[in-house]
Amino acid sequence: MKPDRAHSRLPPIASLSALGRGLLLAAAVALLAGSASALFLHALDWATATRLASPWLLAGLPLAGFAVGWAYLKLGGRSDGGNNLLIDEIHQPRQTLPLRMAPLVLLATVVSHLFGASVGREGTAVQMGGALADQLARAFRLAREERPVLLMCGIAAGFGSVFGTPLAGALFALEVLAIGRLQHAALLPCLVAALLADRVALLWGASHSHYAVAPFGQLSLLQLGALLLAGALFGLTARLFAGASHALAAQFKRRIAWAPLRPLLGGCVIAALAWSLGAERYLGLGLPVIGQAFEQPLPAWDFVGKLAFTIASIGSGFKGGEVTPLFFIGATLGNALAPLLQLPLDLLAAVGLVAVFAGAANTPLACTLMAIELFGTALGMPAALGCAASYLCSGPQGIYHAQRPGAGKAARPLPTAPPAPPAPPAT
């Protein structure tokens, strides 16, 4: 054996030991993140049911926003960075994520939902998973290069358990870090973390929403073209959402220096508009309207209403996430486009549900896999077309500004092998 080869790789026993240690840590992350997601989902169910039973709670949205802003100002510290802080720490590990990130984002999200903010839940689950995973990294004194993998396991476990889509959760953790580049080295631990976290959440009694798509047979070439067109429109909608959310947040920060006043003002505007326009359907997660999008024609402006209320909620500083509101926007936009494009209503609602998120988060592969987990294998090809078109049309900036450019979205020529050295002369 040549000396350079002897030191180019770990001995087999050491490799298996490192792999086993990594999988055990991934399982520990799954136990913590899955339990946290279950607690969060139960709390969200309570908050949503309470708000719907007591519509007057909407009057407290400005004070709830002030409380959320004040809590993050006084207690949050680095936690206010949210998902972007987590992505930054994976790319450039510097400092352990504060443990208080997990309970703080959980309570802030539940309060936001209780009083009617239009926010989601993926951000909360991902931040809880990442913060809890990082405590394990510190407790076991992981090497600098090992810590990012455990943080990715936290993302996978949180995402997979909060939506009941573990395969999509694992791929999301690999895909969300950089546009056009995957971190394949973390695939196995992320799969283990996401699958086990989903099982843990289910054991704690967590439940997930299910939507049915009727069999639709083989799609014609014309229908496939219509899916591509719909995907492009989903991508443009995602681009509008991400750009408007970032722009509004920047305006709030520039014009209102004291952070608690931003969600207080945003809460006043949201409550006033919801009451004056009779637009309560655009508050909270909006799961009932998402279900209706698969069953019956809805007002064509539903996606616009949810878009506006979510941008106002996220931009002014309420906590939670964007994904479930993006599901609402995509499903209702697909519902509105279906008769125009001569596509089955439930089919295009399903594709829209995942494709708008794919464009906004720059994660087309994870969202295609999510469609398969949510709706079955028949949705794989339509979802892949819609998500790919949405991704390409959604612009360079998504909802997570900490994403690295990676390979980007422009087509690039494949690298060519260097020319072979000339053969030695014959002797």
UniProtKB/TrEMBL annotation:
KW Transmembrane (keyword) present: yes
Subcellular location as annotated: Membrane
Compositionally skewed regions (Pro residues) per UniProt: 415-427
GO molecular function: chloride transmembrane transporter activity
Keywords, sorted A to Z: Membrane, Transmembrane, Transmembrane helix
Membrane topology: Multi-pass membrane protein
InterPro entries registered for this protein in UniProt: Cl-channel_core (IPR014743), ClC (IPR001807), ClC-type_chloride_channel (IPR050368)
A single Gene Ontology CC term: membrane
SUPFAM superfamilies: Clc chloride channel
Pfam families membership: Voltage_CLC
Residue ranges of the region described as Disordered: 404-427
Domain of life the protein comes from: Bacteria
Segments crossing the lipid bilayer: 54-73, 101-119, 149-174, 186-206, 226-249, 261-278, 323-341, 347-372
Gene3D superfamilies named in the record: Clc chloride channel
Name by which UniProt lists this protein: Voltage-gated chloride channel protein
Species in which this protein is naturally found: Malikia granosa
